[in-house]
Write a structure and sequence with these properties.
By secondary structure, the chain is an alpha/beta fold. It has two domains: 114 residues, Rossmann fold (3-Layer(aba) Sandwich); 127 residues, Rossmann fold (3-Layer(aba) Sandwich). 40% of the residues lie in helices and 17% in strands. The chain has a six-stranded parallel beta sheet, with helices on one face. A six-stranded mixed beta sheet has the order 7-6-8-9-10-12, sandwiched between helices. Helix 5 links the parallel strand 1 and strand 2. The longest helix is centred in the N-terminal third of the chain and has 16 residues. The termini are far apart.
């Protein structure tokens, strides 16, 4: 399959396709066109021909096209979670730049793990159960996970601490004068929830469990949780992820008191900094998780593992930072 064919299907020039797939010029196409190019290349199973490129450059050594599988640990499809979808895009682009083949994208809850036996390596998106990990480990030891939570599993992992992100978000709300802070998100062994609780304890603020709504961290559950919290006297809410926060903002937008100029507004802060956080109303204040860098590092570490470049299990932790926008207000 050629670049020319992809260009014909998308309706752009072959040079635009080449620049997009090789990530050489960030402004070569709009985000929408880039997404169409990647979707078309993915649908056609397009893989660059590094051997032909090497011949043109008079290089004789051919590099193998490693087959890499991606396992979705906590959700059924990439459409279920924009954070992991954007993370996957970074992984996919980096795999392509290294002339790797995307073997498959599977859900760990439904996957036939035996179908992954011919994959050279596995990238695990999200936290996997011990049972699922034991099955994955039988396939290959070439595994790297990407998540907001560190684990005790015996594998390489790329993380950006959800606990640290939650603490930064809580400290930001406290700096604005908020103390009646709600929480929307998973409360089961979840580092972001731990960060929420520890910050309240450290500031001698009593825990009010009426302010906490445990959810599956989806848009719909964010809407529902916000409606429950509106019955409480909260002044702000920490959402575990952006998609929950967008749901919470939707519920808030339907409250007349929240839209009234003289009424105090409820502040919303979340974690992830997905693309939609920059287009909602109000613009979402959030904690940035460096998805692009994490995806690239995961591929780099996995390929090094496949090539026997390291033996010990590595943990690479990226920093997070507050992105101040319009959804938080001082008391």
């Amino acid at each position: 399959m050629s670049l020319k064919k992809i260009a014909e299907l998308v309706g752009v020039s072959p040079s635009t396709v080449s620049r997009t797939l090789n990530n050489t010029v960030s402004t070569c196409a709009s985000p929408e066109v880039k997404e169409k190019i990647w979707a078309t290349a993915r649908a056609l199973n397009y893989v660059p021909n590094p051997n032909a490129r090497n011949l043109r450059n008079k290089k004789c050594e051919a590099k193998p096209n490693y087959k890499i599988a991606v396992i979705l640990a906590r959700f059924a499809t990439l459409d279920d979670d924009p954070f992991f979808y954007e993370l996957f895009q970074s992984v996919e682009e980096c795999l392509f730049s290294h002339s790797c083949i995307l073997h498959s994208v599977v859900n760990s809850q439904q996957a036939d793990f035996s179908a992954l036996k011919d994959a050279d390596g596995i990238i695990l998106l999200g936290r996997s159960s011990e049972n699922h990990f034991s099955h994955i480990k039988k396939i290959t030891s070439n595994i790297v996970s990407i998540d907001r939570n560190p684990t005790d599993y015996k594998m390489d992992e790329i993380i950006c601490s959800g606990k640290t992100a939650a603490i930064k978000a809580m400290e930001y709300l406290l700096s604005l004068g908020h103390q009646k802070i709600g929480y929307i998100g998973d409360c089961s062994l979840e580092s972001r929830y731990i960060g929420y609780c520890e910050t309240l304890i450290r500031h001698n603020i009593p825990m009010n469990y009426n302010y906490i709504v445990s959810t599956d961290q989806t848009y719909k559950s964010g809407c529902q949780a916000m409606r429950r919290l509106l019955k409480q006297d909260i002044t702000s809410v920490l959402c575990a992820n952006d998609i929950s926060a967008l749901g919470a903002l939707e519920s808030l937008s339907k409250q007349p008191s929240h839209n009234a100029a003289k009424s105090p507004k409820i502040s919303i802060i979340s974690i992830d900094n997905i693309a939609r956080a920059q287009t909602c109303s109000p613009l979402l204040t959030t904690v940035n998780i460096p998805k692009e860098d994490m995806g690239k590092m995961a591929v780099t570490i996995l390929l090094d593992r496949i090539r026997h470049g390291h033996r010990e299990y590595l943990r690479v932790e990226f920093p997070c930072r507050i992105i101040e926008r319009d959804s938080c207000y001082p008391i």
